[in-house]
Design goal:
Elements lengths: L1 E3 L5 H11 L1 H7 L1 E5 L1 H9 L4 E6 L6 H7 L6 E4 L1 H7 L8 E6 L16 E6 L4 H14 L3 E5 L8 H6 L3 H4 L2 E4 L1 H10 L3 E5 L4 E3 L9 E5 L8 H6 L2 E4 L11 H15 L5
Parallel strand pairs: 1-4, 3-4, 6-7, 6-11, 7-8, 9-11, 9-12, 10-12
Antiparallel strand pairs: 2-5, 3-5
Helix pairs in contact: 1-2, 6-11
Length: 265
């Protein structure tokens, strides 16, 4: 067990780089997790950990060891260092450095014979990705596939806004072309949420293997998804605006699919 009290410490400076730069996360294969809930979910998802840092005023070493085994590399940090690293004040005094997983399509495995999948194409805002992951977790989908990602999965804002659902979902990233080929090879029907040449979402049958694809609020899904879809679907709007937050739209369609499946896996 070590102790670090200065924000000028080289290790702390490196952790700040991991927080701020996707390039460093990719280069080092590491990322930062804050908070007991998020760390617990990552442990349950079999993530490996490099180091855990804790502020003893908020959490004791015994509590840390209750989460991890005694072999975990532990660093006690000062209040100044903790507040420099912590994004929010309610993370219970614990920050972990975890090892990234390989989120490639080849690693996706379906336990269900008729999987339900969420596709998110080109979503830029980490908060929207986090909200989509929360919706996916709530619907207990079989996988979330992120097409043409604009932010890496281990961005601290994604972890925070997903309240740890980045760890509860089976996730893979790839180009739209790669993901479409994967779905077609797996005989999974694609339902693209778009206004063009579309049918009302509730009129479709999602009981068989289905992938619900959503795009950005500004431009929607790209043409490749509209053309590859077995059916384009829309959510009838009854107010004065013509769009909703992408996570809300995804949740509406996902839960229609779950309703049709009688909320069974």
């Amino acid at each position: 067990m070590k102790e670090i009290t200065s924000i000028q410490n080289s290790y702390i400076k490196n952790l700040l780089k991991l927080q701020e730069k996707a390039r460093e996360r990719k280069k080092q294969g590491l990322f930062i997790i804050e908070g007991k809930r998020e760390i617990t979910l990552a442990i349950s998802a079999n993530y490996k950990f490099d180091t855990v840092l804790y502020f003893p005023t908020l959490i004791s070493e015994d509590e840390v060891l209750h989460l991890f085994n005694a072999n975990i590399n532990r660093i006690e940090i000062s209040k100044e260092v903790y507040h420099k690293l912590a994004y929010r004040g309610s993370t219970e005094g614990i920050i972990a450095v975890a090892k990234a997983k390989n989120n490639s399509l080849e690693n996706i495995q379906f336990n269900s014979k008729k999987p339900l999948i969420l596709i998110a194409e080109g979503i830029e805002k980490p908060g929207n990705i986090g909200a989509l992951l929360r919706s996916a977790d709530a619907a207990n989908v079989d996988a979330v596939l992120i097409a043409n990602p604009k932010s890496d999965l281990y961005n601290s804002n994604i972890i925070r806004s997903s309240v740890g659902c980045v760890f509860t979902n089976q996730i893979a990233t790839g180009t739209s072309e790669e993901i479409i080929a994967f779905l077609q090879k797996s005989n999974i029907s694609i339902y693209a949420a778009t206004l063009q040449n579309s049918n009302e979402y509730y009129k479709e049958n999602y009981i068989e293997s289905s992938a619900i694809a959503v795009g950005t609020e500004a431009t929607g899904l790209s043409e490749i998804w509209r053309e590859a879809a077995n059916q384009n679907v829309n959510i009838p709007m009854q107010g004065q605006i013509d769009s909703m937050n992408v996570s809300v739209s995804a949740a509406i369609i996902l839960f229609e699919a779950k309703r049709q499946r009688k909320f069974k896996k």
